[in-house]
Amino acid sequence: VELEESGGGSVQAGGSLDLSCVILRFHMNRNCMGWFRQAPGKEREKIALSDFPGTAYYADSVNGRFTISRYNANNTLHLQMNSLKPEDTAMYFCAVDVGPCASIPEGRSFLYWGQGTQVTVSS
């Protein structure tokens, strides 16, 4: 399984970016997928999850500004980010697991991760 993120970059505050994640050699179906981010010196943060059958979870820090979308037909996961703030600056990672989000044991990380794409928001 291989995950490839793209779409990161540098934008000014208030701008938008659309992150994409292509998942190779994995059949997307009733599985949990998500976006995480990690800023320098901070712990990794779970920011958005996409679960079957079409439910989504958002961290308070991004709720109302970010939208997660999954396209099972072409094995992609997107994160539309609007109204970006300097505090959104981080490395962004996509991740997938083999079952629904509720099936992931407490404390266990997602099974498959991408290498990350950098997002930098200037004030």
SSE layout:
Layout: E1 2-6, E2 9-12, E3 17-24, E4 33-38, E5 45-51, E6 55-58, E7 66-71, E8 76-81, E9 90-96, E10 112-113, E11 117-122
Parallel strand pairs: 2-11
Antiparallel strand pairs: 1-3, 3-8, 4-5, 4-9, 5-6, 7-8, 9-10, 9-11
Labels describing this entry:
123 residues, mainly beta, 4-stranded antiparallel beta sheet, 0% helix, 11 strands
Q: Give the N-terminus to C-terminus distance in angstroms.
A: 37 Å
If you average the pLDDT, what whole number results?
94
Number of strands: 11
Measured by DSSP, the beta-strand proportion falls in over 45%
Give the fraction of residues assigned to helices: under 10%
Oligomer: single chain
Main sheet attributes: strand count, strand direction, barrel closure = 7 strands, mixed
Stretches with pLDDT under 50, minimum 5 residues: none
Give the overall form: globular
Q: What is the tally of helical segments? A: 0
Give helix and strand order, one letter per element, not per position.
EEEEEEEEEEE
| Class computed from helices, strands and strand pairing | mainly beta
Write down the Rg.
14 Å
Q: What does it look like?
A:
The chain is mostly beta strands. It is 0% helix and 50% strand. The strands form two sheets. Strands 2, 4, 5, 6, 9, 10 and 11 form a seven-stranded mixed sheet that branches. Strands 1-3-8-7 form a four-stranded antiparallel sheet, with no helix packed on it. The radius of gyration is 14 Å and the shape is globular. It starts with a strand and ends with a strand.
